[in-house]
Structure formats: C-alpha cells, structure tokens
Predict the structure.
Amino acid sequence: MTVDGAAHGKGRPAGLSWAELEAFANAVAAPEPHAVLACMDRLLGRHVGHKLFTALQYRHAEGLAVRLYSSRPDVYPASGAKRIGGAPALTRMFETGRAQLAPDAAAVRADFLDASSIFALGCESVLNVPVIHRDQLLGQINLLHDARHFQPHHIDVASALAQMAVVAFR
C-alpha cells in the first residue's frame, strides 16, 4: 500500500475504503478507547500487515509506558507496563518521537529486552510509530512481523494511520 495524495487529493492510504473510514469514525465515537485501538489493529493489519499489534501510552511523570491494547493479550496483556529507559528502542522513541524500525532478528535482539518473546511469536522485525498530539508524545503503536517485512513506505502509512488513534491515548 502507498500513500496516494496525487490521485485522491487527500493523501490518504490508497485502498482505504469508505467502510473502513466509517468503522473508524464509529470507534472514535464509542466511549471505550479499546474500540479505537481494535479498529486501528484491523486497519494496520490490512494496510501494513502485522502478526502483533500493541499500543503503549506514555506516563511521563512516572517514567512508564503502559500497554493499552494488544492483539495477543495471551502473550502481551493490555495491563503490562515498561519502564522508559529500559529498552533502547523505547528510549529512542521517547527521546526523539520518531518512528523506529528494527528490520531483522539482530536489530530486535539489540533493541528489545523481550526479544525472546518476540521471536517466540515468529516475529523478527518491529516497527514502532509515535502517537503525537499538539507536539506532545502520548505513546506509540508497535507492529511486529517477519524479518524485513516492513519497508520505508510502511513507516509513512503506519505513522499517518497511528495519528488517527490519538483519542485513545488521551
């Protein structure tokens, strides 16, 4: 999937259907943030692809990243928390607010303390994208998949779609 601003004039991901937009609008209107993140899970699954989707909310004052949502709660429960500064990729995201890509097993091993859990899921690449509102980093969305699954255009698409979920992080 690519961002096709010229053809559509709106810079939306090519192939994003009206039904997907309507489902997302309904999720945003729902009282539970979980509905927004479940819809984002489906959108990113279709338009970027992933074996695991998680969403972390930053609690700056506490120095924590709290898991709001997981597509695999059996492995990564939605109630889990990580200390910011514990893992290199999480620290870089927190400090820079820029997307992070670990394209293969070596990068995952270097950047993630839970690399063995990631590998146990059959994943060897991680794409982390920030969720930012009015210049404040609220958290991140994490996508995991096979080695070298994520390409540069996936970063742009995932980043754009992740911003649509900002309401779930507030």
